[in-house]
Every structure is written in C-alpha cells, then in structure tokens.
C-alpha cells in the first residue's frame, strides 16, 4: 500500500469532523485491512483502522487516504479518487486487500441503467453529516461510510430488499455498494439515485408552519400522502416471504410486548435521572408515565413484528416534484446493527413521525412564532393516510384500543430517547420533548 504513517493517524483523526472519539485519549491505532485502489489516474489506500482508546470500546473507521508531506490526506477530496471508487461499484469490480477483498456491487434493473456524463462531475454535499456524500453526474449520490460497524449494514440490506424484492418506489433506489470481505468485513459505501431539487421534510414542514397560522387543507392533504407512503413502506416490508428471513413478518407475542414495556420503564428511570436537575417537574409525573408504559405489556397481542425504518422523522423524508420519498434506512445510530435489524411493531415508525410534527410546531414557537397547536391536525391527517392504505393489514393490531395503547407507548419511548438526545446534543431543545412528556402525563 502507499505507506501509511501510523504515528500520524491519531492527530489526523482528531481533525476530521466525522471522527467521534475527539474527546478521548487514543492508546493506539492499528490497520485491520487495506487495499490499494488505482483508477482514473489516482492511487490511494483504502484502509480500515481500529482506534483503541485509553478507556472505552474500540471503534473502526474507513480511511481512504493518500500520503502527503505532513503524513496523510483524505483521498476523497480528490475527484479522480472519487471517480475511481465509484468505478469499482459501477463495474462490479474487485481488488484484493491484505486480509480479504474489496468488492463493488451494482444492482441491475431499470434504475441501474444510468446514462452518466463523461467526465463524471463530482459535487460535494454541503451538509453537516457523519459520513461523506458526493453527487456524481447529478444522478448518483455516493455515501462513503466513515465509522464502520461489523455485520450486515441495514441501509444496504433494506435498500437492496426494496429495490429487488418489492415494488415500493417512494424511495431513492439503491444502485450499488462497496463492501470489504474478510475479517474486517463491512459495507464501505452505498450509492443511491440522486433526487434533484429535493427539500427535506423537516425544512419543508417548518416553511409551511412559518407561513401559515392554521394549516391549510393542501398541507394536510400532503401529510395524508406522507402517511400513505409510510403505510406502503410497511406493506412492502410485510410482503417478505420466508425466502427473505431477515424481513419475513413474525407473529407479535405477549413476550415482545412485555419486553418492550420493560425496556420503556427502564429508560424512564435512566432518563428522569439524567433530566431531573434541569427539569424537576418531570419527576412528579414518574408514576403516571410508568403506568403508561406498563399498559403496553397488558395489550392482547395481535398483528406482527416486521422490519421497520427505525429512525423515522421529518428529516428522513424528501419532498420532490410534489411527492414524498422516504430514505436513510440505517436506523438509530446509537444502536448496534443487530439491534437496528430487529423486527418491531410498525407503530414505532408511526410514533417517530408523529413526534416530529410536535417538534416542528415547537421549533417555530421557539423562533418567536405564536404556537397554534397545529401538530394535532397534522398528526390526524398523517394517521388517517396511514390507516387508509394499511386497513386490514395483518401486521397491525386487530383492534382500535390496542392500536392506541401501542402508539402512545412508542411515542413515550421516542420522547424519552429525545430527552436523552437533546441533553447530549442540544440542551436548549430539551424543553420540546419535556413539555410533551408533561402534556402526556397531564392527559392521563
Ligand atoms: N438520494 C438523495 N437525493 C437527494 N438528496 C439526498 C439523497 N440522499 C441524501 N440526500 C441529502 O443528503 C443528506 C445526508 O444524507 P444521509 O444519507 O442522511 O447522510 P448521513 O447518514 O451521513 O447523515 C440528507 O439530509 C439529504 O439532504
Ligand atoms: O441524525 P439522525 O437523523 O439519525 O437523528 C438524530 O438527530 C435528529 C435531529 O436532527 C433527532 O430528531 C429529533 O429532532 C428533529 C428536529 O431536528 C425532529 O424532527 C425529530 O422528531 C426529533 O426526534 C433524532 O431523534 C436523532 O436520532
């Protein structure tokens, strides 16, 4: 390989925005596997390194690097290297690595038949993200995954399933991927169809709420459409047969409900302990909220567990040409791949999106806008659309009472996650989920 100076790596890593271990002292960095990619006039190393910290669990990162006078530099800043990486995917090529091989995968089919311009333009995405995405020829978005996790990558697995096993097309299709096979095996990059002129659902909704005092019928109808797309996504997941065991629906059992309920009760304890200094009010509602979570365990089980999106909120949908597209199937980043690939009640996704409506309303209020309590109407429209397309679906609970109790319990679960997320990332915003928790408690 082009020589990698290991002694320079801790310093290099600490200066990368995608490196999440900036706060912890690094004990050492080792190269798990590496390959030399040579294409289109660019040669660079694709190395998988393990960062071992003085304390805490080791982490793996993908380093596409070239040697430079002061050690290493990011090969992804070089357009020719980017094209070389994409070529490997597009041609389904492979390159031997020290401990395995790097393999490109291109998904054949209508979407894969792209007429890409030559030379291929490379445009870097100007968004805050934990990976690195580039737009190629304005038709493909290639995401190079920076922090690697062992096992099956859910974004690739779900994208592949939707593209090849279902007719669900309200998503930017997965076109291909780059994998490392061998002991350090992982998915290194994913390529999707690029959606031009798309606005993300969060921005789209905030704009509507900023400009309208009351939500108009047009926006509500769009939210009904969003509910329909989410319902259709769940129908696509639930259509899996036993030939796709990672997706095939399974009966929802009493023990699932008990396990989920116990987990919410546990999270309630941890979250209130974390939040109590900032929001002592929450403590008063503890018993009521526990009751709320426990009700989930008492539901008579019906319906199925299916694969779900797992991290559904307004930031995970795109609005383009008057249509909604659902994307980013990687699940909640804080959880392991195994946990993210678990089958759940579909209502967990519904609850996630519903929480986003409250966030949007609260965000406009925090900006100085008057709160108009529009989240309720949006929620109703969304759930209405969802129920319209999923009526009678085998994966949903068979009675209304169970539907409501389960949905509320998953909303509570998401609220607790949000309190922890905001305490960690945006302490000023913690009041958004806290206010919602207080309202939930008062409504009992
Ligand atoms: N297929 C696509 N078409 C257009 N824009 C996209 C597409 N996929 C992602 N984006 C944009 O890129 C941003 C980052 O993508 P995402 O997959 O969420 O990256 P990360 O996992 O690193 O956060 C999204 O917020 C969205 O604005
Ligand atoms: O980075 P991800 O998209 O995987 O999700 C994380 O960050 C989200 C914030 O960007 C966070 O979402 C929360 O805030 C949103 C508004 O910024 C709101 O629409 C969501 O409903 C709310 O949960 C998400 O929880 C977190 O996992």
Write the layout of secondary structure elements.
Layout: H1 9-14, E1 26-39, E2 42-53, E3 59-68, E4 71-74, H2 79-90, E5 94-96, E6 100-106, E7 122-124, E8 132-136, E9 140-144, E10 147-148, H3 154-165, E11 174-182, E12 186-193, E13 199-200, H4 201-211, H5 217-238, E14 250-251, H6 254-275, H7 281-284, H8 286-298, E15 304-305, E16 317-320, E17 323-326, H9 337-340, H10 347-366, H11 375-390, H12 400-425, H13 431-442
Antiparallel strand pairs: 1-2, 2-3, 3-4, 3-10, 5-6, 6-11, 7-8, 8-9, 9-12, 11-12, 13-16, 14-15, 16-17
Helix pairs in contact: 4-10, 5-11, 6-8, 6-12, 8-12, 10-11, 10-12, 12-13
Structure in words:
Keywords: ATP-binding, Nucleotide-binding, Transferase. Its EC number is 2.7.1.175. This is Maltokinase. GO terms for molecular function: ATP binding; transferase activity. The chain is of the alpha+beta class. The protein has 13 helices and 17 strands. It has helices at 9-14, 79-90, 154-165, 201-211, 217-238, 254-275, 281-284, 286-298, 337-340, 347-366, 375-390, 400-425, 431-442; strands at residues 26-39, 42-53, 59-68, 71-74, 94-96, 100-106, 122-124, 132-136, 140-144, 147-148, 174-182, 186-193, 199-200, 250-251, 304-305, 317-320, 323-326. A hairpin with a 2-residue loop joins strand 1 (26-39) and strand 2. The chain starts with 8 loop residues before the first helix and ends with a helix. The relative contact order is 0.10. The structure holds adenosine-5'-diphosphate (ADP) and the ligand O=P(O)(O)O[C@H]1O[C@H](CO)[C@@H](O[C@H]2O[C@H](CO)[C@@H](O)[C@H](O)[C@H]2O)[C@H](O)[C@H]1O. The ligand O=P(O)(O)O[C@H]1O[C@H](CO)[C@@H](O[C@H]2O[C@H](CO)[C@@H](O)[C@H](O)[C@H]2O)[C@H](O)[C@H]1O binds at residues 202, 311, 313-315, 332-333, 355-356, 359, 418, 421.
């Amino acid at each position: 390989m082009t020589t990698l100076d290991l002694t320079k790596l801790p310093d290099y890593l600490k200066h990368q925005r995608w490196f999440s271990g900036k706060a912890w002292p690094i004990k050492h960095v080792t190269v798990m596997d590496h390959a030399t990619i040579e294409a289109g006039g660019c040669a660079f190393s694709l190395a998988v390194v393990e960062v071992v910290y003085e304390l805490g669990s080791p982490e793996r990162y993908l380093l596409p690097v070239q040697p430079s006078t002061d050690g290493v530099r990011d090969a992804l800043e070089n357009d020719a290297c980017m094209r070389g990486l994409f070529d490997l995917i597009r041609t389904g090529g492979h390159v031997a690595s020290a401990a395995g091989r790097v393999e490109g995968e291109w998904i054949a089919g209508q979407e894969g038949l792209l007429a890409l311009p030559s030379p291929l333009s490379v445009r870097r995405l100007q968004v805050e993200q934990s990976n690195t995405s580039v737009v190629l020829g304005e038709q493909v978005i290639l995401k190079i995954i920076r922090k690697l996790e062992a096992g099956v990558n859910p974004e690739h697995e779900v994208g592949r399933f939707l593209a090849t096993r279902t007719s669900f097309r309200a998503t930017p299709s997965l076109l291909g991927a780059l994998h490392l096979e061998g002991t350090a095996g992982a998915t290194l990059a994913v390529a999707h169809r690029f959606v031009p002129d798309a606005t993300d659902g969060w921005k789209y909704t905030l704009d509507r709420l900023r400009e309208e005092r009351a939500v108009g019928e047009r926006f509500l109808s769009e939210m009904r459409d969003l509910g329909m797309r989410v319902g259709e996504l769940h129908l696509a997941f639930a259509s899996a047969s036993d030939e796709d065991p990672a997706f095939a629906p399974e009966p929802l059992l009493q023990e699932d409900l008990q396990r989920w309920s116990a987990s919410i009760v546990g999270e309630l304890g941890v979250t209130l302990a974390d939040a109590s200094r900032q929001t002592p009010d929450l403590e008063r509602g503890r018993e009521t909220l526990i009751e709320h979570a426990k009700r989930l365990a008492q539901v008579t089980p019906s319906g199925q567990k299916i694969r779900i999106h797992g991290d559904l909120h307004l930031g995970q949908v795109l609005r383009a040409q008057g249509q909604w597209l659902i994307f980013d199937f990687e699940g909640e980043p804080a959880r392991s791949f195994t946990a993210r690939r678990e089958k759940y009640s579909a209502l967990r996704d519904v609850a996630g999106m519903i929480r986003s409506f409250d966030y949007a309303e609260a965000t406009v209020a925090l900006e100085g806008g008057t709160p108009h309590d529009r989240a309720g109407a949006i929620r109703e429209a969304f759930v209405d659309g969802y129920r319209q397309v999923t009526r009678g679906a085998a994966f949903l609970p068979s009675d209304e009472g169970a539907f409501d109790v389960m949905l509320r319990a998953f909303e509570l679960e998401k609220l607790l996650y949000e309190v922890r997320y905001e305490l960690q990332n945006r302490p000023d915003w913690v009041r958004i989920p806290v206010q919602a928790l207080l309202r939930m408690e008062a409504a009992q």
